[in-house]
Write a structure and sequence with these properties.
Strand content: 15-25%
Order of helices and strands: EHEEHEHHH
Shape: globular
Distance between the termini: 49 Å
Number of helices: 5
Number of strands: 4
C-alpha cells in the first residue's frame, strides 16, 4: 500500500483441542519455528513464537492489509497439517476453535517477547487457564465462560 505506514503489534494465543498436554519436547520447538516460517511466508514479521504443552503464543507485526482472523486460520490449519503429516502424535491433531488477540505498543514489545520465550518457566507457577483469563481481564475484554477455551484442570 503506497503511503501507508503502520506498526501493529499483535499477540495471539490458541490452544490444543481438548487442552491435552501433547505439544511434546521432541517437536514443540520445531513447531514454533514452523509457525514463524508460516508468518514469514505471508510477509508477516514474527516477533516471538512460543508456548507450552497445550497452547501457543504468537507475537507479530500485522500488516494493515491483513485480517487477524484470516492469518490465525491459516497458521492453525497449516501447522496442524504439518503436525499430522509428520506423525508427531498418535491420532489426528487439531487446535481448538478460536484464539485470543491482544495489541501492544512498541514500548511493550520486549516485555511481551520475554514473556513468550519464558513460557516454560512461567507455567511452573501459573496454569494456562489463569494466564488466559488474566489476559482477558487485563485487556478488559468481556467474555462468557461457555465461549472461552475448554479448560480441564488437573
Amino acid at each position: 500500500m503506497a503511503n501507508t505506514y503502520s506498526q501493529i503489534n499483535i499477540h495471539c494465543v490458541f490452544a490444543v483441542k481438548g487442552r491435552e498436554n501433547i505439544l511434546a519436547d521432541h517437536f514443540r520447538y520445531d513447531l514454533f519455528r514452523y509457525i514463524s516460517g508460516i508468518l514469514k511466508n505471508d510477509n508477516v514479521f514474527p516477533l516471538a513464537v512460543g508456548g507450552w504443552k497445550d497452547h501457543v503464543h504468537v507475537f507479530f507485526e500485522l500488516k494493515p492489509d491483513l485480517k487477524i482472523s484470516d492469518l490465525m486460520r491459516m497458521v492453525k490449519a497449516t501447522s496442524s497439517k504439518w503436525i499430522n503429516e509428520n506423525r508427531f502424535l498418535k491420532g489426528k491433531f487439531n487446535w481448538q476453535e478460536g484464539y485470543g488477540a491482544f495489541s501492544y505498543s512498541r514500548s511493550q514489545r520486549d516485555a511481551v517477547i520475554n514473556y513468550i520465550i519464558n513460557q516454560e518457566k512461567h507455567h511452573r507457577k501459573k496454569t494456562f487457564r489463569e494466564e488466559y483469563l488474566e489476559l482477558l481481564r487485563r485487556f478488559e475484554i468481556e467474555y462468557k465462560d461457555e465461549y472461552v477455551f475448554e479448560f480441564y484442570d488437573i
